[in-house]
Amino acid sequence: MRRRFRRVLASVGVAAAVAVAAPVAVAAPQAAASSEGAVPLARPAFRMPFLCGQVWRGNNWRGHSPAHSIDWNHYNAQGVPDDRGRRVLASAGGKVVASYYSRSNGYGNTIVIAHGDGWRTRYAHLKERTVQRGTHVRRGRVIGRVGATSAIYNISPHLHYEQLHSGSVVVAVVQGVRWYDYLDRRLKSTNRC
């Protein structure tokens, strides 16, 4: 019994010595095979959805629905709104995933563009839509014109604008400006400059 115990003890000692002396193989981290573990891409560099040099007033007012959306208005030199019919541009490149007239909510003529990694923009109350579902657009492409369409509300002309991520409207960032709720400011467009 002692011999057998010594042999087992010797075998364990040899195995331990080999394990300590041998290089250790460690698996290097691999990129996730699914989107579950993937690092999300940064927010696209959204520009104002208007022609270069135009100054628009962006307003995210108390009670605005949905929260975080922006209403854009343009004014002439006398301070009178003159945005009806002005061109609306894609604020980032992507694919048009919706172009429709909504009768079920207050959006009226609406366009939604997917920008990748869950990012989308929505443009509503358009007078006209100049792109259809499935169209690939570059930033700065004309996608419609400002209007006052709505199946529910009687509204004045303006562009209703949203940035969405993974299906939820988020606080918009336009040309580096974070559009917190209740922010009201003027900004000059750098789209298509």
Task: Explain what you see.
By secondary structure, this protein is mainly beta. Helix content is 10%, strand content 36%. It has one helix and 13 strands; from the N terminus they run H-E-E-E-E-E-E-E-E-E-E-E-E-E. The chain has one helix at residues 2-21; strands spanning 55-59, 70-73, 87-89, 94-102, 108-116, 119-129, 136-137, 142-146, 159-165, 168-170, 172-174, 177-179, 184-188. Strands 1, 2, 3, 4, 5, 6, 7, 8, 9, 10 and 13 form an eleven-stranded antiparallel beta sheet that branches. Strands 11-12 form a two-stranded antiparallel ribbon. The longest helix is centred in the N-terminal third of the chain and has 20 residues, at 2-21. The chain is globular, with a radius of gyration of 28 Å. The chain starts with a helix and ends in a 5-residue tail after the last strand.
